[in-house]
Specification:
Structural class: alpha/beta
Number of helices: 21
Shape: globular
Helix content: 25-40%
Oligomer: single chain
Largest sheet: 5 strands, mixed
């Protein structure tokens, strides 16, 4: 017997097969559990049902008419017949497909959706063998550019409303809509407007008929030309699961993969369209040494030169957020055990405090599911749409479920329509947190923040942006606030490798797993694996390393996957550091002033490694694309340098 208040499961039959599902389940979902395919176009598991295409007709015993299975919930004892066992449902589906194809152009050979088109597949499996329509088809000028990335072929559209529902229900960017009615209805955008949503590419992927196409992929390849590999997006810390499609070894398309624990079925436009860097002409393909200009060299020659420069010298290491977990771990071990230095850092902001140590030491305490189910969410100095776009979608999803969302930020973010913003001056976020901790006047925005966090209790979530670490007390105040109300807390990094670097010990005072370098017992745990560490004192952070180089207190600055002139806020300091340090070996992605000599460019799309994002640790790619000739495996690349030294 079910416990009091528990909803009773519903048992029904579909095509004579019995299935038990939770109440409220749609017939089409129950059929999927039985492996029964019901054709559909408008239905999508992450969008609200609408019944627009009328393709998923089923017969329900005892009812006088057919029902759309994507909008009809199950009922106890219901007997459903799909097109497999109901001639009436099968006839209706054939007629509906014939209707949808009346004005659909016969341009499958040139359509970018051809070969992977749901309309094509279902017309073949469930549609009429031939069309009775002999009149001229309706035509439009094509394509209609909705933005520089998205093009619309209106004559292909079957008005399923997937794209407009995504913009309304998921991203909240209502740039496109169904205009007019009847035979004149079509997807359109307001005159003079661009489809400026940072999630516009998702409408292309969920379009079932090729009406929306990606301009960069238009007429580039056919599905049978492509080889694909699953990977994780490297543009931010969201960890979106994506698929790279390649033609002749060159990446031509990126698609989001379904993963309900991370990105649902979405990705942002940067992750979808910013892929050409991997095959850029300025990517390094061989080690270089600057003797008489940048000249190609062998690995042995370059690494030998680095070892020669470093012997008996003062050495420091700088890296960024572009590497994989194995790279960071190897770099941390190399710097400390071979070069004997703790002058090692990956950060742009240096005041993480106890919050940073907590993040480095333990498993991630906040998942996307926690955010989605939260009763209250507080974002501090975090513009989710710009920094971690998929987190932005999860917060909107939580708000739609009734969560109270608050944002402490110097400017209004894109959550303005679902969150209450507490404005502050830049750099004053920590002061606002102190006011929340101390208590505020009743009726004030800060009092509402306290009340919401207190009411939500353990279901509340406090998210601190990377910029909060610019204040010496910022992250610790956010951690205290979360602890006071029993809320979950997380620091949200911006770059894909930031969390992996922190946990791997690419930090002047922290070893792998958040173990403190200056605490004997914690250092001993690492020494049991690595051997004795020659230097037990904390090193310099990234800014202090650059200042030491500028003051000629360091002889060698090794840069791995970082460009100080672009990656650090004080470019003038970085320039002085590079001008005054004696040697600056680098492993950049592209050639430039800060990159002589260059042992190897760490490629995010080369090799099979792991990345720790905002939600969890994910395996990276499995050798997609064409890496340069004779590349060493990324995370073992430090071995030759260590042995040479």
């Amino acid at each position: 017997m079910s416990p009091p208040g528990a909803a009773e499961a519903v048992t029904l039959t579909i095509d004579g097969k019995e299935v038990t599902v939770p109440p409220g389940t749609l017939i089409i979902r129950a059929a999927e559990q039985l492996g029964i395919e019901i054709p559909r176009f408008c239905d999508h598991p992450l969008l609200e049902p609408i019944g627009a295409c009328r393709q998923c007709y089923v017969e329900v015993e005892g009812q006088r008419k057919l029902f759309t299975s994507c909008t009809t919930a199950v009922a106890p004892g219901m007997a459903v017949h799909s097109q497999n066992t109901s001639e009436e449902a099968q006839t209706a589906q054939v007629a509906n497909l014939e209707f949808l194809l009346l004005n659909h152009p016969l341009d499958c050979p040139i359509c970018d959706r051809g070969g992977e088109c749901p309309l094509q597949d279902q017309a073949l499996e469930f549609g009429p063998g031939e069309s009775r329509y002999r009149e001229p088809k309706r035509v439009f000028a094509k394509p209609l550019p909705l933005s520089p990335l998205v093009a619309l072929d209106r004559e292909r559209c079957v008005l399923c409303a997937r794209c407009t529902r995504f913009c309304d229900q998921i991203s909240g960017d209502r740039f496109i809509e169904l205009f007019a009615r009847g035979a004149g209805e079509q997807v359109a955008i307001a005159a003079g407007e661009d489809f400026r949503s940072p999630f516009s590419g998702n409408t292309i992927q969920i379009c079932p008929v090729g009406a929306l196409t990606a301009t960069p992929y238009r007429f580039v390849a056919r599905p049978f030309d492509l080889s694909s590999v699953d990977t994780v997006c490297s543009h931010c810390s969201a960890g979106c699961n994506v698929r790279l499609d390649m033609r002749r070894g060159e990446i031509v398309r990126v698609l989001a993969r379904d993963n309900l624990d991370v990105n649902d079925a979405w990705t942002c436009d940067k992750g979808r369209f910013a892929f050409r860097f991997a095959d850029g002409g300025d990517r390094l393909t061989t080690p270089l040494i600057r003797d008489r200009g940048l000249e190609p060299a062998s690995f042995a020659e370059v690494l030998g030169r680095v070892a020669e420069w470093s012997r008996g010298r003062r050495v420091a290491f700088l890296t960024g957020g572009r590497l994989m977990d194995e790279d960071y771990y190897a770099l941390s071990k190399l710097a400390r055990t071979v070069f004997g230095t703790n002058d090692l850092d990956h950060r742009r902001h240096f005041h993480g405090g106890m919050a940073e140590e907590t993040e480095a030491a333990g498993a991630m305490r906040v998942t996307y599911q926690d955010v989605e189910r939260a009763g209250a969410i507080l974002l501090v100095d975090l513009d989710a749409e710009q920094e971690v776009p998929i987190l932005h979608l999860r917060i909107r999803k939580a708000a739609a479920r009734g969560a109270d969302v608050f944002v402490i930020h110097p400017r209004r973010t894109r959550l303005w329509d679902v969150a209450e913003h507490v404005a502050c001056r830049p750099g004053q976020e920590a002061s606002v947190l102190e006011e929340v901790l101390e208590g505020s006047d009743r009726g004030s925005p800060l009092a509402r923040v306290r009340a919401a966090l207190s009411k939500a209790g353990t279901s509340a979530v406090v998210l601190a942006g990377a910029g909060l670490a610019e204040h010496p007390l910022g992250p610790d105040l956010a951690l205290r606030l979360a602890g006071k109300f029993g809320a979950r807390f997380a620091m949200v990094p911006r770059r894909a490798g930031d969390r992996g670097a922190l946990r791997a010990g690419v930090h002047p005072a922290l070893l792998p797993g958040g173990r403190r370098l200056t605490v004997d017992a914690e250092r001993a745990e690492v020494e049991a694996v690595w051997g004795p560490l020659p230097n037990p004192s904390a090193g310099r952070n990234a800014r202090q390393i650059l200042e030491a180089c500028a003051g000629r207190q360091l002889d060698v600055l090794v840069m791995v996957g970082v460009d100080p002139l672009r990656d650090f806020p004080d470019a003038a300091l970085a320039m002085r550091a590079l001008d005054n340090v004696a040697h600056r070996p680098a492993c950049p992605a592209r050639t430039g002033r800060s990159s002589p000599p260059s042992p190897w460019p760490w490629g995010a799309t080369w090799g099979s490694r792991h990345s720790t994002g905002s939600a969890r640790r994910w395996p990276g790619s499995s050798n997609p694309g064409n890496p340069p000739s004779d590349p060493p495996r990324g995370w073992t690349r430090t071995g030759p340098s260590g042995s040479t030294t």
